[in-house]
Design a protein that fits this description.
- This protein has 306 residues and is α+β, with helices and mostly antiparallel strands.
- The chain has two domains: 160 residues, Ribosomal Protein S5, domain 2 (2-Layer Sandwich), CATH 3.30.230.10; 126 residues, Alpha-Beta Plaits (2-Layer Sandwich).
- The chain contains ten helices and eleven strands.
- Helix 1 links the parallel strand 3 and strand 4.
- The longest helix has 20 residues.
- It is globular and about 55 Å long.
């Protein structure tokens, strides 16, 4: 056990349009968690400061404690400091980052009794679905499938030169609201619509033919319903596509919109922001990439959040 150490956890985006609750990717945008021996204390800087709990209800600490419960050991006294660069309630996996960060930090503290696969299964069990926690732990683009209680993941190849343009609204979209608005039953026609596009999505990313992403990121299972909570969605996606993006979609439960491209990132970002502004929505543009590395212990000298 190290007396003090810092880990980094990437932001993630789930669904990618047609792959509802099935696929996610890791984004080069990071939270960090520093753990050290000492009296219980939680410090938080960045997103969530003044909003998230600093007691035992903090999700990082709850996840940290959960791991010790799983391995049957006493929860140690620790001080935890969180540097949050991932916006809260914007569909960028902030809760998954906290959950994964707590588990991974605890596993290091305990001497790494659990494998990365064990951590992934525990994280997916706690989260309820694997689409964010899988890329948060493994990096890259990950598909998650359950066989009974067993989680199976598969990495999706993608071209190394693609960029992500994120339009991050100032307004939040609480995950519970975004899930509760979804229908309990869907039509066979809509399922076929999504299945065909999800196959095209994976194939297009794998073979580098991004020209089909405009169609492959289309969806009927969650985005039309969630547009009721974030009405500018359709116009922002259209702005991205009209500016030259290969595809664009609602990130997770929202409210962030992500466009995939290999050029003209700032032009695409400008058009997305302009479409939002015309709908009375303010926000920020972030240009980023997919990262192949998930949660990890940082090397000495590595920046905590970059």
């Amino acid at each position: 056990m190290t007396s003090e150490y810092t880990i980094k956890i990437p932001a993630t985006s789930a669904n990618l349009g047609s792959g509802f609750d099935s696929i996610g990717l890791a984004i080069d945008l990071w939270n960090s968690v520093t753990v050290k021996n000492g009296p219980f204390q939680i410090k938080l800087n960045g997103f969530g400061e003044g909003e998230l709990p600093l007691d035992q209800n903090n999700l990082v600490y709850k996840s940290f404690s959960r791991l010790f419960h799983e391995i049957g050991e006493t929860i140690p006294q620790v001080s935890i400091e969180c540097e949050n660069q991932i916006p809260i309630s914007r569909g960028l996996g902030s809760s998954s980052a906290a959950l994964v960060g707590g588990l991974y930090a605890a596993n290091i503290f305990a001497g790494n009794p659990l494998s990365k696969f064990d951590l992934l299964n525990l994280a997916a069990q706690m989260e309820g679905h694997p689409d964010n926690v899988a890329p948060a732990i493994l990096g890259g683009i990950q598909i998650g499938v359950y066989d009974d209680q067993n989680l199976i993941t598969s990495s999706v190849n993608y071209p190394p030169n693609i960029s992500l343009v994120l339009y991050i609204p100032d307004s939040i979209m609480p995950t519970d609201n975004a899930r509760n608005i979804l229908e309990d039953q869907v039509s066979r026609k809509d399922v076929i619509f999504n299945l065909s596009r999800f196959g095209m999505l994976v194939n297009s990313l794998s073979n580098g033919d991004l020209s089909n992403l405009k169609f492959a990121t289309q969806d009927l299972l969650h985005q039309p319903q969630r547009q009721q909570l974030f009405f500018p969605m359709k116009n922002i996606i259209k702005g991205a596509l009209d500016a030259g993006a290969y595809g664009a979609f609602l990130s997770g439960a929202g409210s962030t919109i992500i466009a995939i491209t290999d050029s003209r990132e700032y032009t695409i970002g400008y058009e997305m922001a302009d479409a939002a502004m015309k709908s009375g929505i303010e926000g920020n543009i972030v240009v980023s990439t997919i990262v192949n590395q998930g949660v990890h212990l940082i090397d000495q000298g590595e920046n905590k959040c970059q």
